[in-house]
Amino acid sequence: MNIQRVIPRVHGLFLSHFNVNQPSCCAIRWFSSKSDINEHRAKVMAKGLPEKKPLPGVKSIILVASGKGGVGKTTTAVNLACAMKVIEPDKEIGLLDADVFGPSVPLMMNITGEPMLNDDNLIEPLLNYGVKCMSMGLLVSGENAVVWRGLMVMQALERLTRHVAWGPLDCLVVDTPPGTGDTHLSLAQNLPIDGAIVVTTPQSAALQVTKRGVNMFEKLKIPIVGLVENMSHAMCSKCGTKNYVFGNETKQSADQMGLEIIESFEVDANMSECINSGKPAIYALADSIHAEKYRQLANKVFKYISDKDKEAKATKQ
Ligand SMILES: Nc1ncnc2c1ncn2[C@@H]1O[C@H](COP(=O)(O)OP(=O)(O)OP(=O)(O)O)[C@@H](O)[C@H]1O
Ligand SMILES: [Mg+2]
């Protein structure tokens, strides 16, 4: 295969689209009358939403999201993708880091190096732990801050999805940034997403933001696989008492939102070590309760995908 270095090309592609010195859109547009506004609005609406085209060779797509930052989305996405590969080694699993401003998948999956372009001009994902990975962190150097507007983010996501040789994949797990912004909208409007796993911690501040995230997915018609409660409590290493350091309100909120808590992970001091060493907990702490729960989560996701598949086939007949 004629593999080429991808970075100069990708930089070229990005730079041709993202000229920061010449912003691509004008921030304010003035209208002289109300009928002028209505005419403009009608034109915009007539354009409609972009068509959701499948990713070639990718059977299912699962988002890992949360309105709130720092609740453990990437930790969940990384361990879920690896656990899916562990329990079903014959299945092809991918992990897309859609956090273009703060990519942390390369660190957590211990992937470095330049991705290459294949004969079809597609970027080859990098492989570790048997999982195909792609991240903006692999395409721009670590120290360079990414300063982009919404449109640029959408174009970057287009590159990370449609210009990557993902297929064949049974499931692509997508790690998303915090918030309910351009990235989520862009992914939801462009990709056929099978479901979203919403990660939250048990304190009310996080749960409030989680509700906003859940509302967004409802509006975007993306089904929610369930809630993952992270950092549910800390266990005292001496007496085994559960300390609800972040509160204990997840169940109540889940009931209000009509969602199921599909897995719950306690605080474990070793988790941060896994991140620093680039070895996900599913491998580094293979005998731990966390690893077992990630395997159970992976099982639930496989079952969700297969049920959805059967449902789709049944409605077609
Ligand atoms: N169950 C856990 N016990 C202890 N530490 C944890 C646990 N889950 C995640 N962490 C730690 O919390 C920090 C944040 O996790 P992570 O980066 O996965 O969150 P995130 O939601 O992806 O953050 P961001 O919104 O910035 O993308 C990391 O240092 C991680 O090691
Ligand atoms: Mg993250």
UniProtKB/TrEMBL annotation:
<dbReference type="GO" id="GO:0046872">
    <property type="term" value="F:metal ion binding"/>
</dbReference>
<keyword id="KW-0411">Iron-sulfur</keyword>
<keyword id="KW-0004">4Fe-4S</keyword>
<dbReference type="InterPro" id="IPR019591">
    <property type="entry name" value="Mrp/NBP35_ATP-bd"/>
</dbReference>
<keyword id="KW-0547">Nucleotide-binding</keyword>
<dbReference type="GO" id="GO:0016226">
    <property type="term" value="P:iron-sulfur cluster assembly"/>
</dbReference>
<keyword id="KW-0479">Metal-binding</keyword>
<dbReference type="InterPro" id="IPR044304">
    <property type="entry name" value="NUBPL-like"/>
</dbReference>
<dbReference type="GO" id="GO:0005524">
    <property type="term" value="F:ATP binding"/>
</dbReference>
<keyword id="KW-0067">ATP-binding</keyword>
<comment type="similarity">
    <text>Belongs to the Mrp/NBP35 ATP-binding proteins family.</text>
</comment>
<dbReference type="Pfam" id="PF10609">
    <property type="entry name" value="ParA"/>
</dbReference>
<dbReference type="GO" id="GO:0051539">
    <property type="term" value="F:4 iron, 4 sulfur cluster binding"/>
</dbReference>
<protein>
    <submittedName>
        <fullName>(African queen) hypothetical protein</fullName>
    </submittedName>
</protein>
<dbReference type="InterPro" id="IPR027417">
    <property type="entry name" value="P-loop_NTPase"/>
</dbReference>
<keyword id="KW-0408">Iron</keyword>
<dbReference type="GO" id="GO:0032981">
    <property type="term" value="P:mitochondrial respiratory chain complex I assembly"/>
</dbReference>
<dbReference type="GO" id="GO:0140663">
    <property type="term" value="F:ATP-dependent FeS chaperone activity"/>
</dbReference>
<dbReference type="GO" id="GO:0005739">
    <property type="term" value="C:mitochondrion"/>
</dbReference>
<dbReference type="InterPro" id="IPR033756">
    <property type="entry name" value="YlxH/NBP35"/>
</dbReference>
